[in-house]
Prior knowledge:
CATH class: Mainly Alpha
Shape: elongated
Keywords: DNA-binding
Strand content: 5-15%
Number of domains: 1
Order of helices and strands: HHHEEHHH
Largest sheet: 2 strands, antiparallel
CATH topology: Arc Repressor Mutant, subunit A
Organism: Pseudidiomarina donghaiensis
Radius of gyration: 18 Å
GO molecular function: DNA binding; DNA-binding transcription factor activity
Protein name: Transcriptional regulator
Number of helices: 6
Amino acid sequence: MQLKKYTDYGLRILMYLASFDADDKCAEPKLATIREICDTFDLSANHVNKVVHHLGRLQLIETRRGKNGGFLLAKQPEDISLAFVIRQLEGDEKWIECENPYCVAMPACELKGIVARGKELFYDYLSQYTLKSLMVKAPQLRQIFSTAS
């Protein structure tokens, strides 16, 4: 299984926001911009806009418009489940499609059930982790992100 680039970008954006959110020295939360994200990760603005919009609809980030606008985490990193984020960004589609086109092996095949169980185990495992789990090295990430853009 491979995650979509869309999901990868969403996780990177959340990590970026969480790395600055973890900065105790900031009285005001740092607002990130599309341009910062694009420059930091070398991504296209079109892709980043779509992902940021989706993360906003999921209420994971808050967006602020205007001259000094940007976006920031809407929840604490410990309240953002990796299983939820990945399931939402991936679209939770079937991993094995037996009906379209119809597979002649379907009446005697165990593949669909085994893969479906594996998918649930995958998400069960991820449900043990949150965005905070990815932020063990937040100061180092913050430094990397600051010098990358």
